[in-house]
Write a structure and sequence with these properties.
two-stranded antiparallel sheet; 62% helix; globular
Length: 264
Amino acid sequence: MTPATVTAPTPVRPWRARVWGASAVLVLSVVATALLLASVHRGDGITLWDGPTLTWMLAHRAPVATNVLTVVSMFGPGVYYWSSAIVVFVLFAIRRRWIEALLFAVALVSADTVSRLMKQAVQRARPPAAVVLGPLEPSFAFPSGHTIAAAAFALALAYLWWRARPGRLRAVIGLVLALAVTAVMATSRLYLADHWLTDVLASTVLAFGVMALVVLLDIYLELRFPSRSGGGHPVATLPGLSAQGRKRTTASATLPGEQHPTGR
């Protein structure tokens, strides 16, 4: 009697879900940024909230809030920001976590580059100088460089923390903390009257787009150099299969009461 042949199911590849998720975030980021840009150019839509938001911030200024948010704003792109980034990069390098160091650097440099390019392309004026607290910024308003930098820094660390040991709880905690950091920086820029509401909103959605590209890069490196990826999300395999057995395999199964061919 011919033995029955059972084909093992195709291994689940977790990276496929991450590709779809990152791609969806990237598309949403592009669409949201386009909508915000259109609103800024037309002066309608959500930009109608720019003035009222600034007015509300001016009406609620207080000495303590001014001191705290001024310090927060100091951690935008500048000496403190890039010094902190270098420290994180060096720590990854010391531990020979080269992929993590690369992803972190790509996230920050990409966010800074996108911010600078868009400022020159849009050339939006900042709020009136008379209401600004602190030194006047020489660059244009859209998007907020401080906000996108803070968001990219926090989101990158959150992703790399999750990457070391993937799990839903880590993902939620990391995302919440990253959003909190972004919100605090965005609030400081609005409070100090350095930006309009739509500036910081654009920076936030752009940061998510940048991180989506970083995730896609991470997946590519993981598949291209599996032995060096160092991630905590390897391609799933069937129990008992070796690393070389990740492709579809065929196993011979003996039905009840039937003798295996090798035992004849």
